[in-house]
Amino acid sequence: MANKQSRVLQRFKKIPKRKTSNYVPGTVRYKGKKEKAESVIDIIDYSKSDIKIYKPESLESAFQHKGTETVSWINIDGLSNTETIEKLGGHFGLHPLIQEDIVDTAQRPKMDEYDEYLFIVFKMLYYNDNAEMVYEHVSMVVGQDYVLTFQEADGDVFDSLRDRITNDKGRVRNSGSDYLMFAILDAVVDNYFTVIETLSDKIEFIEDQLFELNSEGVDLSKDILHLKKEVLKIRKAVSPLREVINRLEKTDIDLIDPKTHNYIRDLYDHIIQISENIDLYREMTWGLMDMHMTNISNRMNEIMKVLTIMASIFIPLTFLAGIYGMNFEYIPELKFKYGYFVLLGIMFVVLVIMIWYFRRKHWIK
Amino acid sequence: MANKQSRVLQRFKKIPKRKTSNYVPGTVRYKGKKEKAESVIDIIDYSKSDIKIYKPESLESAFQHKGTETVSWINIDGLSNTETIEKLGGHFGLHPLIQEDIVDTAQRPKMDEYDEYLFIVFKMLYYNDNAEMVYEHVSMVVGQDYVLTFQEADGDVFDSLRDRITNDKGRVRNSGSDYLMFAILDAVVDNYFTVIETLSDKIEFIEDQLFELNSEGVDLSKDILHLKKEVLKIRKAVSPLREVINRLEKTDIDLIDPKTHNYIRDLYDHIIQISENIDLYREMTWGLMDMHMTNISNRMNEIMKVLTIMASIFIPLTFLAGIYGMNFEYIPELKFKYGYFVLLGIMFVVLVIMIWYFRRKHWIK
Amino acid sequence: MANKQSRVLQRFKKIPKRKTSNYVPGTVRYKGKKEKAESVIDIIDYSKSDIKIYKPESLESAFQHKGTETVSWINIDGLSNTETIEKLGGHFGLHPLIQEDIVDTAQRPKMDEYDEYLFIVFKMLYYNDNAEMVYEHVSMVVGQDYVLTFQEADGDVFDSLRDRITNDKGRVRNSGSDYLMFAILDAVVDNYFTVIETLSDKIEFIEDQLFELNSEGVDLSKDILHLKKEVLKIRKAVSPLREVINRLEKTDIDLIDPKTHNYIRDLYDHIIQISENIDLYREMTWGLMDMHMTNISNRMNEIMKVLTIMASIFIPLTFLAGIYGMNFEYIPELKFKYGYFVLLGIMFVVLVIMIWYFRRKHWIK
Amino acid sequence: MANKQSRVLQRFKKIPKRKTSNYVPGTVRYKGKKEKAESVIDIIDYSKSDIKIYKPESLESAFQHKGTETVSWINIDGLSNTETIEKLGGHFGLHPLIQEDIVDTAQRPKMDEYDEYLFIVFKMLYYNDNAEMVYEHVSMVVGQDYVLTFQEADGDVFDSLRDRITNDKGRVRNSGSDYLMFAILDAVVDNYFTVIETLSDKIEFIEDQLFELNSEGVDLSKDILHLKKEVLKIRKAVSPLREVINRLEKTDIDLIDPKTHNYIRDLYDHIIQISENIDLYREMTWGLMDMHMTNISNRMNEIMKVLTIMASIFIPLTFLAGIYGMNFEYIPELKFKYGYFVLLGIMFVVLVIMIWYFRRKHWIK
Amino acid sequence: MANKQSRVLQRFKKIPKRKTSNYVPGTVRYKGKKEKAESVIDIIDYSKSDIKIYKPESLESAFQHKGTETVSWINIDGLSNTETIEKLGGHFGLHPLIQEDIVDTAQRPKMDEYDEYLFIVFKMLYYNDNAEMVYEHVSMVVGQDYVLTFQEADGDVFDSLRDRITNDKGRVRNSGSDYLMFAILDAVVDNYFTVIETLSDKIEFIEDQLFELNSEGVDLSKDILHLKKEVLKIRKAVSPLREVINRLEKTDIDLIDPKTHNYIRDLYDHIIQISENIDLYREMTWGLMDMHMTNISNRMNEIMKVLTIMASIFIPLTFLAGIYGMNFEYIPELKFKYGYFVLLGIMFVVLVIMIWYFRRKHWIK
Lengths: 365, 365, 365, 365, 365
Fold this sequence. Notes:
The structure is a homopentamer. By secondary structure, chain A is α+β, with helices and mostly antiparallel strands. Chain A is about 50% helix and about 15% strand. Chain A folds into 2 domains: about 25-295, CorA soluble domain-like (Beta Polymerase, domain 2), CATH 3.30.460.20; about 300-360, Magnesium transport protein CorA, transmembrane region (Methane Monooxygenase Hydroxylase, Chain G, domain 1, Up-down Bundle). Chain A has helices spanning about 5-10, 80-90, 95-105, 160-165, 175-215, 220-250, 260-325, 330-335, 340-360; strands at about 40-45, 50-55, 70-75, 110-115, 120-125, 135-140, 145-150. In chain A, strands 2-1-3-7-6-5-4 form a 7-stranded mixed β-sheet, sandwiched between helices. In chain A, helix 2 runs antiparallel to helix 3, helix 6 packs antiparallel against helix 7 (about 260-325) and helix 7 (about 260-325) runs antiparallel to helix 9 (about 340-360). The two termini of chain A are about 55 Å apart.
């Protein structure tokens, strides 16, 4: 097979040196591209009556939040400084494999149940201001009285949730860490709706452009390919999370209060809905490609029609003119006084017949 | 990937501001487009012997129908006035998540079992007078002695059912709220048949047009895309309802009388039938696209044939004429008395050979 | 989306008035197209030793066959006279939903188990004398000592079975109603083989025609679409019946003798075989469409080659002739005695080079 | 729909007369095409110490091999003489349905468990000397001390197995009829590997030809269609046998010694491997069709380029020549002494510009 | 069907002689292509405190590692010398079928559980220095105190693992043979990531080339086909291994310490991730083919536009010139003093109109 590799692929030579050469399972090694010198820590510590929001000066001051009566949400932004993760992981008793997954930005969404905590990985999706999709790896550890979230970079979709905790709106303040976990996942899933709505708008936009730009001959295949990839990327984030939430609904772990199950079931409804929509949009983008192909062929028909009409009309006429451009000594028609005008008349008749023929064929409207 | 985004997609900038910013799970917020200032309430309250049909003046007068001997069907048209929903929900003890789903028009069909009632979401589909498909979100709460239905707008498919209740036809008056629930779902599913029959008619229509309009060169791809989307939309309504009815058939909740199960099984048969038909029509619309593509290519062949025949006949003849239009001093043929007529004869022979050749190739019929 | 509906679909306005307006579940209403004033009843009543074949004068005389020692096969042809169905149904204690399904020709194949009988719906397929597929709705009720079959129209695939009963061939006469049920289903499934063989012959026929008619430019897409639809239609009949027979094999209802199970298992083998063949033929018809598309493109290549060869040869030659048709006062070549013949020679050389070039490119064989 | 049937399909009139008219379930009726006047019987009777290989003169002498201490492999070649099958079946107590399946060459691979024997149907595939695939129906009955195999025609894939039995190689002689059954199935499955290797070679061959013959314009679609059909045919043989072997592995019937289960599990591995390869080859043949289509389009591009280049160069030049072929009384350029040569120069410049333009567009290399 | 086989396939005659003729199940026969005269044996024997790494001089010295306190990893490079395998297999009590699978390079990944050991087959994939994919068959036998690995050729992906054992990094030295098994599988799976990253880079590369080379008319279909095959090949290695690891996670065999299960679960996550990525890349390569097809059609449109524009402009102009090249005695325009210039002016106007027309159609930018 190797010998079939063509000239073009042979130009491809940038083989990455085996990156994994010294890899040890359980090693904490950041694989993403969003380097950040320092991890930033935010802590929201609340009970029904009190709330404390602050950025701890040292990592160690975050350690006190384990084993308290209050619920603590410790959020870490920035994964490239793996030392912080390891220290925190050490204190909260996180298994080395979990620490590895937290910084492994390629890790797909999943849930692992441990004795003392739940570990959930998911992807946060949003469109930035340039309508480009941002794909961010987030991990969450849910313990009895704390929730740890690890994000790759600044900026997230939790502002509304923070607002609700601060101002004591909704059920959050009255509930435990399990409801906080639900609220975080809910914010993420809710944002997926925004993402697929934007995607849907983009598809509609390209569809409109297909019909509009068709006449201009703009090639939209790059855009359609772009949409396809975006759909595939979103599906890659959503479809494993769907399984996670399904398992979360069915698990009977002590951490999760039975009352919270209703909310998780609702969340599961939402993610199924999203994942059905994605399948729909996927099918639609494929339909766009078909449409585009049809458009190109239609355009070719248009071009061929013009050529055929022009050539079919003028080539025979030119032939007629050629006949009487010959230099034979004896061409009787040439001597007729009105021969020229008769011929022009004949040519006009041929022209009219041709046009009638093409109209009947609906090639000329 | 971002840098691959083409010129066209870059024009797309209408990023919706995050609508979900202040969203709290369990919030009752109408997301549909069918605004209606006031919700209209209709009540049908019936027992085997009596029936009362009226529009209550105040919402509160609807509250008395809970906990009675009679069966009450309370129908609310209009979801944009969420206050009504919340009040009613409060009285009938509806979980906040249910209230949220009632007004969330994007909610997919589903069933939730609660201790005191069943909650079912489905979509009502019908073609309006312009042959456009109407897609309406309907929710239903089925309690021991009442059925609440929530519709987005006026107009529904239940007129025949109301008539049967009023005139005591069929089993409705003799049965409880569970049979009313069945009858409502049955009316909806029965209407799906009408919808897919219309769809089937449309597909047949476009198929006929494909063959008819082919010669006229009308581009039907827009119509086929339209049909595809309609099929996908119907499937989106039907396929989760199928699961709902399946679960309804299997549930052993007290609310549903065993006798009603036979009817629900029948209903399940119907919806499977619909969903198989949809798959069929889906495959057929894809087939239409193939047909259309084939048609375009055939048309191009037609066009090319005309061009090739015209060019192949007249270009050589023009060349012959060109030969004797040359001004060489010594071209012996030019001096022959009947040279001109001999050449005309030769041209005629060439023409005949060409036509014979194209007939043999079946390019001329 | 509505505004995207194109000019063509807007012509489609034949919206059927809601047919289902006054529909009550359990209503016996014929939906098919094969109207028949009177239902014709045939009765075959047999035991191991005796047999009685007759057409009863009145419907009531058929009633006596319930609760006897003999096995009775009561066959009704014609479903449009729903009164007959209702009377018979009343006597044999058929549930209203069954009566509805008997006359509902759109009902998909299914099996319902009731306490005293089995109810089976299936489709009878055969090709009529014009090689058109006939699709007929048949229902069967199997009781302890009787089998009722309801057909839409005259003509069926049971003649051989009737012959076997009459002449005491095979196991039928020695067995009960369960074996009769098997024998009826077996005759139907056996006929499916004939149908798919004909279908397979048709596919082979079109495939041959594809290669044969290719040169003639006959458009076979209509035929391929027709085949596709036929495959889909057969699949629609077969695939739910497969489930029915699977359930029939597994059911442990008293009605069915354990010895009959071996036969039903064999029947199940047959229908799986048919349904695998259908999938095969489905894939093959798709392949035909591909072939057809390839053919069209090949034909276009043929056409373009002719055009390109003719134009590429004669356009340059015409140009050469045009050069020496110019009226410049001083064109030295024109004065050469044999200029004309030299030019003819050059033209011939150009012609030969062109032909050599096209032969090397394999455009001329 | 019937009225849509086109002109071509209407020519199709060879409706087979219902072949199944007098069919009784359990009838032994040969349906294949490999007629053979006499069935040939081969018997290999062996124990650990002794072996007897012979062709019995009469069928009856084969009867003695039931109920002995030795293992007997009775092989019957030729199924068209159904009487032999019936006699043998009678002696060995084979159910009428089994006898029917033995001669029904359309029967798909399957396994039926009976009290005293196992019945297995499979397909033997091999390429004959003309590289055409042979598809042969084989049935096997495995009893406590005998194995019956029924083949359609002479020639099989068991020579190596016979050799091993004769020369006491491998485990066969030391084991019972269950291991013989395994060895027979193993020989069949092992030969599937040879078949799919040949298929794979054919695919590679066509793929190479695609690139090679592309320039010659040979149409390979017929060959690709042929390959597709072959893949489908092999899959039809393999995929039900896979189920059979899976069930064989899991069955806990007494007939099969636990030690043999290891071997059957290994066999199951092999057939899964084959069936995965088939899926792979299926996808590859579809890829070939795509390649072929791309090739055709590329060729058309080639043709169009030649036409466009020739026409674009010579049509404008001919126009220039035409200008100076006009007979206006006053065309000053015609009087210039070197007008002719100047024009030739201009024409040359136009030619060079054209060629430069087409080179920049990469149409000329 | 045979008669349909076309001219091209008939050239295909290289039918392999039945290779399997003398095959006995359980025979140790090397089927790969990487012949190697001598098998090379490497032994790493370690406990928590000690480690011994050496190449034994004779095979027999490897035998002592069974039944010791230390963990021994015996690695054999080279499978063509089947005698070594058989001797080793004899000593370690490997079932003949296992010995057969070790040297059968076509064997798909699988796991067999035996009483005293686990047998696992998998494929090692890596890109060599020419960016060609290497596909190597590896088998592993995991006993209580030893791990045997059998590789086809020199070179593997275990260097990092060996390094970790030697330098006592990670958990390996503190754990038993089960963790060593995990570590080996982990190294293999980890390398799959490198492989699919390279694949992904290749896809991106071809995608970029598609847009870049489009104008040059380079045919990339060979490269896309190559990518498709590579994706299929990787999937063939990964997807059965996924099942193996899934079963490994769930098995409760004594050999595997419960602590190791966490690691295997993590490994399972990784392989699911890989297999989802492969599906993604598969869909992307199909998208590339679509893109390529669209590109070809676009290019044809480009070509046709040039032809149409040139022909549509110059053919009518040539006709005009032809008119006044006629030799009629009486053509009044020819006598007009400025007739020639007037005509040139008319031609210029025609040219301008044409160009305006084509610009409006966006055929000229």
